[in-house]
Every structure is written in structure tokens, then in C-alpha cells.
Amino acid sequence: MKRIYVNEEYCIGCRLCEIHCQVQHSQSKKIIKAFKEEDPRAMSRLLVEEEGPLSFAMQCRHCEEAPCIEACMTGAMHRDGETGAVLCDEDRCVGCWMCIMVCPFGAIKRSLVGRKAASKCDLCYGESTPVCVAHCPNEALVYVEVNGQEEGAR
Length: 154
Fold this sequence. Notes:
By secondary structure, this protein is of the alpha+beta class.
């Protein structure tokens, strides 16, 4: 399975990952339209956290033993059989927020777009590389194979 790995020592806090994520999940997929014309504006599925001189992109880790999947009463949170990614079917989500409460990384948010549903990183489902990784100028985000690694080692 491929996952996003964060090299926090390379992150400069430019937030280009947030911008490109937001554009990728917009209706138009065009940067100017996504920020100036679309209402409601799409949400970024990740957030750059800063603590002193350290900054890093915080997004879903797609855990092997995902507590959000276990907590989801409708099955909206599920694992993709092909990629192993943890995905949220927003049409099945009832907005109980159990996934938000049990996520140990705080990587699931309430969608501010459309109906009440959970929103999280989907590894840019359907793309060969997530856009946050593709547009990171310092390679602070890399998309790598993680088979056999422990969850905490990433």
C-alpha cells in the first residue's frame, strides 16, 4: 500500500499542499475559480500545523487498524479494496462525528460544503499521485510504499 509520508524537516510551511488539495476537491479544479467564484468553497483535506520552527502537513494516515472505520455506524468510513485507503462515502455519512472523536490524529473534519458529513484525505482517489505530494516544492511530502511497516514508524 502506498501512503503519504511527511518529512517535517523539509517542510517550510508554504501551504501549497493545502491550496492544491482545495483546488483538487473543488467543482472546477481551476485555482482562480475554486477560490474566487465557487460558493461554497471546497475544503482542503489536510492542514499544515506549525509549532515553533517545525511545520508539517497533517492528514489522514489511513491506519491499518482504523478506529474511524470501527466507530462508523453506517459503513460510510470504509477501506478501498484496491488501494487500502480509508475513504468516506459522504452520501452514507449521517454526521454523528464518531470518526472525528476516535481519530488519534485529528485528521477528520466536518465538511463545510453541502450536507453534514465527515471529510478527510482520500489520497486524491483516481489520481496516480496525491496533488499535495505532486506540488510540494521541497519534497516534504512523498508518496511511498509502506508494506510491512509499523503504524508509528511512518
